[in-house]
Amino acid sequence: MEQLKHECGVAMIRLLKPLEYYQKKYGTWMYGLNKLYLLMEKQHNRGQEGAGLACVKLEASPGEEYMFRERALGSGAITEIFGNVQNYFKDVSPDKLSDADYAKRCLPFAGEVYMGHLRYSTTGKSGITYVHPFLRRNNWRAKNLALCGNFNMTNVDEIFSKITAIGQHPRKYADTYIMLEQMGHRLDREVERLYRECEDEGLTGMNITHEIEERIDLSNVLKTTTKDWDGGYVVCGVTGSGESFAVRDPWGIRPAYWYIDDEVAVLASERPVIQTAFNVSADSIKELQPGEAIFLNKAGGMRLSQINKPKEVKACSFERIYFSRGSDVEIYKERKMLGEKLVEPILKAINYDVEHTVFSFIPNTAEVAFYGMLEGFDNYLNELKVKHIEALGHNPTHDELEKILSMRIRSEKVAIKDIKLRTFIAEDNSRNDLAAHVYDITYGSLKPHEDNLVIIDDSIVRGTTLKQSIIGILDRLNPKKIVIVSSSPQVRYPDYYGIDMARMNEFIAFKAAIELLKERDMKDVIERAYNKAKEQVDLPKDQMVNHVKDIYAPFADEEISAKMVELLTPKGTKAKVEIVYQHLEGLHEACPKNKGDWYFSGDYPTPGGVKLVNQAFINYIEQVYQF
Which CATH number fits domain 9-148+232-313: 3.60.20.10, 3.40.50.300, 3.40.50.2000, 3.40.50.1980? Predict the structure, then answer.
């Protein structure tokens, strides 16, 4: 319902055969380029603010360019960057364009190593200079570095202080630039170490260059660089000499999957995109493990290395609920299970009156949970039918059986996403009026004043769309009761690992808890939580405690949900409204592998998350209250 922005998506391809091989087998040396386009387009859901790609050409002669990059802004960025690459070839004759040897020698982006990135900004920083991949140039091939990632760091300030203390001067105060400089510095040191080693062995000239490129071990670079990183990340990189890597955070917060055969090695943020692009089974695709890195050296040799010791695994559950494509075999089952887990609380909300209830969903990401919910209700209804039949005795009449067996779950497509809000209209009243009409309804899908309407969504974070559009438009159908169902629990805390929700006052759950504390004359709870947060500001972050939990502690989930209804129901709404949320237990049963739930529970996986949530609470209180 409310679009959350998520940073970001990555894709990497390493061709393991000469370009001539792909020309002969697939009819084009652009096999890698075309597959990268597919991987990126299939992950379009992960980033629509910008996109970029980098390519490295192996074995280029001195004086020839070997590292290429294209970047663009906007939702059409993928098409634009690949269109720009194709423009390099538009004046090349068909004969030459099908000559892999000519392409390798003369054409840009005719390489063996490709890396792509899709961007959603969670930092508020925009513009082409913030679009990945980032490049660090050098006359030594092995010192050139292109970097991109799906990440958000919680301790940028600490990393910045550390690298400036050793004399570096990053050009921008942004985590990607700082990480690039930090990693580039360690890469420089590694190359220089190998240079001295080769000199001591009596090597000279280009022999040193070639030997460095054969010997370089990027695991040393990653171990020294990433040990201080606090956050969720999958960071990918390629060097000018053809080394490529991807490394995952030790908590497993952000996802990455890889596949390799004798032709190609691939990595992407999501498993089904690899399945689709390369027509391979889910079983043949591996997940990059927490703290692990995958490396492909210049010769194409692949190895895995444990860069950082794994922590308690806290893979992001929002990946399963919302961000990742629902076509993944496991995610599809998990989303259905999330819907099925809501049957009992929904039954309570409609007073077990299934006969007079219509079920629907908010397009589009809640659709799979909707199917799971329907299956759950079908099972419930089958049990009910059995009980009714048993109650009739051994000789039920035809009419009695027909009446029982005709009981059905009624599902309709009630809500339709109709238009996008026209953001070029600046005047608030006009914008609000348009927002109220983002969704349309199917008239006649309910019996007015008789039917309940149950409508499922995947998350309710800010509640603005509910208030401005959904509840008002659904009320036009004259339902007896509107039950809004969230397949995820109440979002109570900011995320600092790559999801665009970082301020306390954005959360309708937080607003509801604050209002309850005010109403019940419990403002002292707010003051005590603030004072405890302030008292620990100067403590080491690994000693900090999340005191925002104190704001929610006095209330049951249902109390907060009821308060949300008051805050979100527009004036003049005729139907009674109720909001039903998934419980944390249901989430963990449905998504057992992805235990990261800090936005629901406040249990942050890293010390940096705890530090930032307390600071966000302090900022909120100091803006709103005078203690």
Answer: 3.60.20.10
Residues facing 148 on adjacent strands: 236
Single-letter code of the amino acid located at 432: N
Residues of the chain with pLDDT > 70, as a percent, come to 91
C-alpha to C-alpha distance for 6 and 18, rounded to whole angstroms: 36
Classified as helix, coil or strand, 113 is strand
What's the pLDDT tens digit per position in 430-450?
A: 545 555 666 777 777 889 999
Interatomic CA distance for residues 54 and 581, integer angstroms:
43
Residue 74 to residue 76: CA distance in whole angstroms? 5
- For residues 285 and 416, give the distance between their C-alpha atoms in angstroms, rounded to a whole number: 36
Query: How many angstroms separate the CA atoms of 264 and 258, rounded?
Result: 11
Closest Cα to residue 148, out of 12, 264, 250? Answer: 12
Distance CA 576, CA 123 (A): 39
Find all residues with CB under 8 Å of 226, minimum gap 6, and list them.
235, 247, 307, 308
585-619 pLDDT, tens digit per residue, is: 999 999 999 999 999 999 999 999 999 999 999 99
Cβ atoms of residues 109 and 33 within 8 Å: yes
Peptide bond into 605 cis (omega under 30): no
Q: Which residue has the higher pLDDT, 44 or 334?
A: 334
- The position carrying tokens 């059986």 is 401
The amino acid occupying position 10 is V
Cβ contact 268:257 at 8 Å: yes
483's enclosing H/E stretch is strand 481-486
**Cα distance from N-terminal residue to C-terminal residue, the chain:** 37
> CA nearest 591: which of 255, 344, 291?
255
Q: Where in the chain are the domains?
A: 9-148+232-313
HEC states along 327-396? Answer: CCHHHHHHHHHHHHCCHHHHHHHCCCCCCCEEEEECCCCCHHHHHHHHHHHHHHHHHHHHHHHHHHCCCC
Q: Is the dihedral of CA 194, 199, 200, 201 positive or negative?
A: positive
Residues 6+ apart with CB under 8 A from 307: 219, 222, 223, 226, 247, 291, 292, 293
Q: What is the CA 50 to chain-centroid distance, rounded? A: 15
Count of CA atoms in the C-beta half-sphere (13 A) of 31: 23
Tokens of 201: 């062995």
If you ran DSSP here, which 8-state letter would residue 4 be given? Answer: P
In the chain, count H helices and then E strands: 25, 20
Q: Are 610 and 544 in contact (CB under 8 A)?
A: yes
Return the axis-axis angle of helices 175-200 and 156-165, rounded to nearest 10°.
40
Residue bearing tokens 């607003």: 511
Give the per-residue pLDDT at 490: 96
Query: How would you label 13-43 residue by residue, b for 16+ Cβ within 10 Å and e otherwise?
Result: bbbbeebeebbeeeebbbbbbebbbbbbbbb
**Token digits for 108?**
């840009």
CA distance 65 to 609: 42
